[in-house]
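Weekly modeling sync, notes
Attendees: S.R. (lead), two postdocs, one rotation student

Agenda item 3: backlog of single-chain predictions. S.R. asked that every request posted to the team notebook include the full sequence so nobody has to chase files. The rotation student volunteered to paste the first one in as an example of the format we agreed on. Action items at the bottom.

Example entry:
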Amino acid sequence: MKKINIYWVIAGLLIIIQVFRIDKTHPPFLPEQDFITISNPPDNFYSMLKNSCYDCHSYETEYPWYSNVAPVSWFLKMHVNEGRSHLNFSDWGNFDTEKSNIQFKKCIKVIEDGEMPLISYTLLHLKARLNENKRLRLASWIKSQQKM
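Predicted structure, as returned to the notebook:
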């Protein structure tokens, strides 16, 4: 009998927490400050950046259906906020040469090391997966964008 009561309590809590929604609005930004607009990548790199990077590292996050379900939505929002705090491609035009080169180096390292995109992200976003060849090509293209 106690197990049934615990299940009801858990179910009730899951229902109640649905009231606490995440904010999915995007802050205003100038498209001309965006990395893709500035760098004008070839189509294949454009796709890689959009599919593998932009959901967590820009103001162009496309929230999936499960972003409406707490507590998953909370984790997702925290993850997006953290990603943007490390790098936000929507603000790229605000970086001076030194900061952009630092960001380029960080991007290259995490891509080459296979740290990005995160495995937890690619499990649900198949288009975001980068095989070794794509990783090396993307890292090489990013290196070509550095300004000295």
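Discussion: group reviewed the output briefly. The chain has one domain: 22-145.
Action items: rotation student to repeat for the remaining queue; S.R. to check formatting next week.
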